[in-house]
Write a structure and sequence with these properties.
Elements lengths: L1 E2 L5 E2 L10 E6 L2 E6 L2 E6 L10 E4 L3 H10 L9 E5 L5 E8 L5 E8 L2
Parallel strand pairs: 6-9
Antiparallel strand pairs: 1-2, 3-4, 4-5, 7-8, 8-9
Length: 111
C-alpha cells in the first residue's frame, strides 16, 4: 500500500480521507471522526506501545470527579490541549484501564 498525504498506508488509489472525516493535526498526526468516535493516528518509525481510546464526555470536570470518586486514578488532571480558531477548547485527562492500557476522557467547550 502506498502512503496517503499524511504518510499512512492506504489502499491503492485511495486515501483515508475517502473513508472518514480526517483532520491533520500536525506532522504525521491525524484525527478521524468515525461517526462520533475520534480516532487519532500518529505515524512513527517504530511501533508505539499502544493506542489510546479517547472517550468523549459532555463536561470533563464532572466526568473526572465522578470517575475519581469511583476509584479511577488519573495520570493527569483535565487540561487544555488545543484551542480552535473559533475559540472552542479541547480538554483531556488520561488514565489507565485495570490492565494498564492508556485511556482518556475528552470534551470540547465552546466559548
Amino acid at each position: 500500500m502506498a502512503p496517503d498525504g499524511l504518510g499512512f498506508p492506504a489502499p491503492s488509489g485511495k486515501t483515508y480521507h475517502d473513508y472518514a472525516d480526517a483532520r491533520a493535526a500536525g506532522p504525521n498526526l491525524a484525527f478521524f471522526d468515525c461517526g462520533g468516535t475520534r480516532l487519532f493516528l500518529n505515524a512513527q518509525e517504530k511501533p508505539g506501545p499502544e493506542s489510546i481510546l479517547y472517550l468523549r464526555v459532555a463536561d470533563i470536570r464532572t466526568a473526572y470527579d465522578l470517575l475519581r470518586s469511583r476509584g479511577i486514578e488519573f495520570v493527569d488532571a483535565p487540561h487544555l490541549i488545543h484551542r480552535h480558531g473559533d475559540g472552542t477548547e479541547e480538554w483531556m485527562a488520561h488514565f489507565r484501564d485495570p490492565e494498564g492500557r492508556p485511556l482518556a476522557i475528552m470534551s470540547q467547550a465552546k466559548p
